[in-house]
Amino acid sequence: MEIKRIFDLLDWMCANYPKEDALAGKRNGVWEKISTEEYREKAHILAYGLLELGVKKGDKVITITANRPEWNFVDMAVTMVGAVHVPVYPTLNTDSYVYIFNHCEANYLFLSNALQFKRVQPALNKMENPPMLYSFDPIPGKNYYGDILKLGEENREKYQAQLEEIKKSIKSDDLCSMVYTSGTTGDSKGVMLSHRNLTSNFLAHVKHMPLTQEHKMLSFLPLCHIYERTMNYHYQCKGISIYYAESIGTIADNMREIQADGFCTVPRVLETIAAK
């Protein structure tokens, strides 16, 4: 099979690189591993839930979160239903959030936890039509991501055939994502990326990097950054296990714990580590 849309990676991984730790994140001190099959299953169940919520082609779905396996479930589910994934940095100020939410006409927002909600709430309060919010971790009084999974499971039969038809209708040149640049002057620019824009990047460099399905990589650069996101797809394309670091401060510990073969980084992070 060919990888022409981002979500084609799911079937590609299951067919070529089935494994028990396709993705992993640390929760309550324990590394929780997600197999390739579980990854595909969760993404599809989430897609059924999104369809039941009324998410449709062209809707904008924002994620604001630290790196974690759920980012991938949303990424795949959103693109499978034809919506547009808009990953945003979790460290922006209120005005920047308001601008991005309004500029992309956000319909839905997934964020990590109560701490992130506290950071984003002032922006939502300033908006006339804020996006519908869901949290990966439970927040009292707020919509919970797990409820969409439950909704999807309950409506699996209702949407199974429909989702397959939607997937077939999505072309490689269809809009897949919007990425907001940090910018040097003025407001961030929303870069519109098709499935082809994203797949061509990682398909080009998987041919030149000697990593295989036997390797583990630690991920800590933000997945909303196009470099880490592209490498995230690269790892999946090659069947490389992806372990998401707890934080920048735990890189060394996490590397030792999982016996990682490497990670992607930028000079500033290395300078910070060296300074310690």
What name does the CATH topology carry? Rossmann fold
Mean pLDDT score, rounded? Answer: 96
Gross CATH architecture: 3-Layer(aba) Sandwich
Q: Label the overall shape.
A: globular
Structural class by sheet pairing and helices = alpha/beta
CATH top-level class: Alpha Beta
Strand order of the main beta sheet, please?
2-1-10-9-11
> Counting H and I runs of at least 4 residues, what is the number of helices?
11
Write down the secondary-structure element order. Answer: HEEHEHEHEHEHHEEHEHEHEH
Q: How many discrete structural domains?
A: 1
Low-confidence stretches: none
Q: Helical percent range?
A: 40-55%
- Work out the number of β strands: 11
Q: Looking at this structure, what is the CATH superfamily? A: ANL, N-terminal domain
Please compute the radius of gyration using only Cα atoms: 18 Å
- Largest sheet, if any? 5 strands, mixed
Termini distance? 47 Å
How are the secondary structure elements laid out?
Layout: H1 8-16, E1 23-27, E2 30-34, H2 36-53, E3 60-64, H3 69-80, E4 84-87, H4 94-103, E5 108-111, H5 114-125, E6 132-135, H6 145-154, H7 156-169, E7 175-180, E8 190-194, H8 195-205, E9 216-219, H9 226-238, E10 241-244, H10 251-258, E11 262-263, H11 267-275
Helix pairs in contact: 1-2, 1-9, 2-3, 2-6, 2-7, 4-5, 8-9
Walk me through this protein's architecture.
By secondary structure, this protein is α/β, with parallel strands linked by helices. It has a single domain (8-275), classed as Rossmann fold. Helix content is 46%, strand content 17%. The chain has eleven helices and eleven strands. The chain has a five-stranded mixed β-sheet with strand order 2-1-10-9-11, with helices on both faces. Strands 4-3-5-6 form a four-stranded parallel β-sheet. α5 links the parallel β5 (108-111) and β6 (132-135). The longest helix has 18 residues, at 36-53. The mean pLDDT is 96.
